[in-house]
Amino acid sequence: MRLKIFFAPLVFLIAGVIAIWYVWPTILEIQTRSLELSTSKDKLNSTLERKDNLETLKGILDRNKEKEDFILSYLPSARNEEKIVDGLNYLATDSGLSLINIAVEEERLPLIQDELGNTYDPNNTASLPEGTVIPVVAPQTRFLIVKANATGKYENVKMFLNQVYRMEMLNKVNSLEVKKVSIGGAPVEGEQAASDTLTATVEIKFGYLPSIHEEGESLSPVFSSKEINFSQYQRLKDFVTEKIPDLDEGQKGKSNPFLP
Amino acid sequence: MGNINLLESAQGKGSSAGSMLGIKSIYIPLLVLFAILIIWGGSKAYSAYLFDQKNKVDEQNQLESANLSGKSADRLVDFNERMKKASEESADRANFEDYLKELESIMISGSNVESLKYSSDKIEILMTADNFKTVARQILGFKNSKYFKDLGMEKTSFDESGKIKFDLIK
Asked: Deepest of A83, A108, A159, A209, by most Cβ within 10 A of its Cβ?
């Protein structure tokens, strides 16, 4: 009889303990997992949508090949001294300046700092201790610093600067030095000075951007749309007016490379 | 007249109701316990199913993402990023012809530029003028200009032709 009296409360107690101790956490776990599943499904749907968009975007880019070529020419994927030298020579000649010399050097990259606060010099990786892992950073625009010297009249210098500004290659003029042509270090006086011949030294940074690759895990937002926004292209295109004729290698082949 | 045993009859009914209550008091708690155990087992199984489904969806997502990162994807991402960076880098460019135009507009008669050095952080202009009044006027002209307003004069000297040389530096 006593067992009967205690049986029901004991079973209810056990049921209550199981419910609180095991069932409730499992229900909470279900809620969490449902949410996780829902998030994963959303991600998958997004990936599938992007996969679908990729085909559409590829078609659009194929139909706008000239725009792609323009952007690649404006901001190339590698340093292109040959185009820079050819372009500056073309613009100098076109604006009536005589180009005297051109010097090219690579701009130094800024130091990289990792999460632990260690700094690395990406310009000198050879000097780093063996096994050092340099933090990976997304490709950044790099610059070639070009120093060009030219002589000509004031109007020619002005025209040259304007043409460089509107050149079909990303560039930024760093500095400009203009002075009267000097003989033996001293500025020319009198009649010769009045001839208005100047020497101009221009330091220009020409940009290039190493190729960018899509990472599977972090899909680019470009795939979330079925359209390519060409407005930035149009702004650049409207701005650039100086088209440099394409550079070819010319006639090749010589039996004695040391003869003129 | 026969006797009716009311006591016995009442006792019999009482024990039947008592046994029913006893049975209920055993089975109902057991039923509740059983139901809770079933819910627990079911929810565990459902939770495992959800986990399995999530893993399958993640695997499929990884597979599809890996398929996306091909040559076409690279080409599109590269074009998009290149266009963006080109536009950003172009935004803060300066046309140095504008500085020369500004210089033209502030020059006064009687003074002329011998040399000019212009960069974003430093400006040096070497000038000559006929007299000190012209020097002062020219400095005032620079101070009222857009690009050369921060220039300051350091010293003056005479050149061989008797003109006043002065330099303006920022």
From this structure: A209
* Among B59, B93, B127, residue at a domain's last position: B93
Say whether both A108 and A159 belong to one domain: yes
pLDDT in tens, B134-143: 999 999 999 9
Termini Cα distance of chain A: 124
| Closest-CA residue of chain A to B52 | A37
The pLDDT tens digits of the residues spanning A94-140 come to: 999 999 999 999 998 777 777 777 777 766 666 666 666 666 667 88
A23 lies in some domain: yes
Q: Are B101 and A51 a contacting pair at CB < 8 A?
A: no
Compute the distance between CA of residue A93 and CA of residue A160 in angstroms, rounded to an integer. 9
Residue A256 lies in a domain: no
Q: Which residues form the domain of B149?
A: 96-169
Contact pairs from chain A to chain B, CB under 8 Å: 222
Nearest-CA distance A128 → chain B (Å)? 30
Surface-to-core class of residue B118, CB atoms within 10 Å of its CB (0-12 exposed, 13-18 middle, 19+ buried): buried
Measured between beta carbons, which residues in chain A are less than 8 angstroms from residue B15? Answer: none
Q: Min CA distance, A134 vs chain B (Å)?
A: 23
